[in-house]
Amino acid sequence: MRPARIFTALGALLTVLCSPPPSAIGAGNPMTLVGTLAPWPAGQYSNVAADATRHVAYLGSYDDQGVAVIDTRDPANPILSDRLSTHITSELLTSDSADLDRVGRYLAVSHQTWSAPSAFEGISVYDIGTDPYHPSLLRRIAIPGGVHTVQIDPEVESGRPYAYANSEGNLKVTIVNILTGATLSQYASSEGIGCVPPPPYCQGFNFAHEGFIQRHPRSGRVLDYVSYWDSGLRIVDVTDPANPIEVGAFDYNFFTNGLTSGHYAAPTPSANWVYLEDEIGLLETGGVHVLDTSGCDGSSYCTPTLVGGWHINGHPVQGAALNALIHSGKFVPAIFAAFKRAFTFDAHNLDVRGENELLAANYAMGIRLIDTSNKTAPVEAAFYLPNANESDACKQDCGFNTRLTWGSYFGSDGRIYASDLGRGLFIVEERVRGAAHAAAPAGQSAYDAAGMSAGEGTRGSGSGVRLRAVPGEGFAFSLTTSREGPVRIAVYDIQGRLVSARDLGALPAGVHSVSLTPRALDGRSPSRGIYFAQVESGSGTATVKFVH
Fold it and tell me: What is the annotated signal peptide range for this record (predicted)?
C-alpha cells in the first residue's frame, strides 16, 4: 500500500466504471475474543509474528513507531514488554516495520524509508532465543530500494541461515545470509519488472511482494512461492540461495485475467495446492485463487492450474463513495476523502493449517476461516470482526482509520493471532471448537471431510473426555467423562452454523448415551450431510464428525 503507487493506479483508473456493492455482514459462526492490545495510541500496525509456545508476539508498524514486543503469557491480558525502535539512521530519518517473521531463535523485521528517502532501507535481525521479551539486535542488513516483506528460511537453525527480502523499490527478491550480512543473490520475474510493457504501453506493474518458503515434500527442493503482483505467482527454486531459478508461474496477463495484484501465496504442506491472494485496492476487491500445483516440484518448469477460489460475500467492489467518484470521472478534492474507502474489502495475508483450512485477514471484514475441503468451492467456516481499542485508534491524522485486519495466523496453542492496522493485536478462538482444535490429528482439520472418518471422535483440551457418534441413530452419541461436572453438547453444520444444542446438566464420571432431536433451532429439519458435534465439560472438550 505505498502511496505513490496507489495514486498512480488511481489516476489510471478514473475512467473505469463499476457498480456499487450490495450490503453484507459477516454471517455464520463468529469466533470468540480471548485478548487484545493496542500497544500505543494512534498506532498504524502492520503484521504480527506470534510464538504461542513461548507466549510472545511481535507486532510491526506501517509507520515509524516501531515494533511492539507483547507478553501473551496471560492471553486474556497481553502486555507490552519492549519496543524496538525504527529510528535507525537518526531521530529525524526514520523507517517503517511493515513486515516481520519469526523462526526459531530469530526475528527479522523489514524496513522501508518513512520520514525521508535517506533513512535506512533493509532488514533488522534479532536474537530472541535467550529472552524473547527483550530481543537482542544481531545486525542490520542494508538493501537498496527498501524491503516491504521478509521471510526467514524455515531451516534457519539447520544450515540455511537465510532471509528473503521482497521490495517495492528494487522490485526483486534479495536473498541474504543473516549471520554474515552478505547478499547472496537477487531474483526477478522472467516476465520483467516494473512497468510491463515499458512506457508508454504499460499495462501492468511487476514487483516481488511476498514469499513463502517450503521444502517440497517429494523432490526435496526448497521453493519460494513469490506473489509478484501483476506477474502473478512465481515459483522459485532457492535450494542454492546463490542461484535462484524460476521453475513455475501462474501468470497474471492483463488482457486475459483482468486487473489483479498477486499479494500473498501460501502452499499447503503437501505442496499440491497454492492459495494465491489479490490485493486490488481500487474498484474491484481481491479474493483468493486456488491453484493445483501437484505437478510443481521444482524438477521442471510448471504452470499451475486454477481450480477454484474464494471471495468475501457481498462486496465485489470497494467503498461506494470512491466508486461513485471514479464513475463520475471527476478528479475532485473529495476523492482524497473517499480514498479512505479504498483497500476496504480485499483479502490480505494468509495462513494454512493442514490441507483443508485457510485463514484470511480480509481488511474491513476481519478474520475469515475458510474450509477448502472442496478446492473448487471453498466455504467460510468462521469469522471475527476486530472492534476493540477504539479509544486508542487513530481518528483523523493517518492514512487509514477504519478496521483493516492485516494478518491472521494459526497459533500452536489452537488460538488465532491477528493484527489490525488501527487496533493492534487480537487473540481469538474458534467458537465451535475453541482450544480443542489442538487435539485434531496433525495436518488435518476438524472440518476436514476427507481427514476424519465419520463417527470418529477426538480427545480435546484436557484428556478426560471422549465423544463418539452412534452410526445410524441421527444425532446420537456416546460420551465418556473422567469426572463429575456440567456437560453441554452442540451440533454444527459444515459451515460452522449451530444446528442443535443441549445442556445435559451435571453428569457423573463414566460412559453416557446422549441423543438430540435432529431439528435445527429455526424449527426446520437439517438436511442430509456432514455435521460436527462438540462436547464441553469439566473434563475438557472433544469434537466428532458424523454423517446425518
Answer: 1-24
DSSP three-state, residue 328: helix
Number of other CB atoms surrounding residue 118 within 10 Å: 11
pLDDT band of residue 84 (cuts 50, 70, 90) is: very high
Structural domain ending residue among the three candidates 403, 430, 457: 430
Cα separation, 99 vs 49, in Å, equals 9
Residue-averaged pLDDT of the chain? 83
The answer, yes or no, to whether residue 326 has pLDDT greater than 60, is no
Cell matching residue 268 = 499447503
Query: What are the DSSP calls for 148-195, one per residue?
Result: SEEEE-TTTTTT--EEEEE-SSS-SEEEEETTT--EEEEE--TT-SEE
pLDDT score, position 449: 34
Tell me if 15 is assigned to some domain.
Answer: no
Residue reference for cell 454471517: 27
The C-alpha cell that represents 67 in the structure block = 515494533
- The answer on 185 and 260 residing in a single domain is yes
**Same domain for 533 and 404:** no
- Between the CA of residue 464 and those of 488, 493, 535, 537, what are the distances in Å? 15, 25, 12, 9
What span, in angstroms and rounded, lies between the C-alpha atoms of 523 and 279? Answer: 41
Rg (CA), the chain: 24
Within a domain: residue 457? Answer: no
Is residue 197 reached through a cis peptide bond, with omega within 30 degrees of 0 on the bond before it?
Answer: yes
- Look up the CATH number of the domain holding residue 326: 2.130.10.10
Exposed (0-12), middle (13-18) or buried (19+): which is 287, by Cβ within 10 Å? Answer: buried
C-alpha span between 435 and 450 (Å, rounded): 22
Q: Which three cell numbers stand for residue 308?
A: 477454484
Element of type H or E holding 192 = none
pLDDT one-digit tens code per residue, 468-499? 888 766 788 888 888 888 888 888 776 666 77
Which domain does 506 fall in, by range? 465-547
| DSSP strand pairing (540-547 vs 424-429) | unpaired
C-alpha span between 209 and 9 (Å, rounded): 17
Instruction: Tell me which residue has cell 444425532.
Output: 475
Q: What is the predicted pLDDT for the residue at 225? A: 98
Tell me the per-residue pLDDT of 5-56, one tens digit each, with 9 for 90 and over: 444 444 433 333 333 333 333 345 789 999 999 999 999 999 999 999 999 9
Rounded to whole angstroms, how far apart are CA atoms 441 and 437? Answer: 9
If phi over 0 gives left and psi between -120 and 50 gives alpha, with beta otherwise, what is residue 455?
Answer: left
Instruction: State the residue for C-alpha cell 528460511.
Output: 153
Residues 83 and 229 in one domain: yes
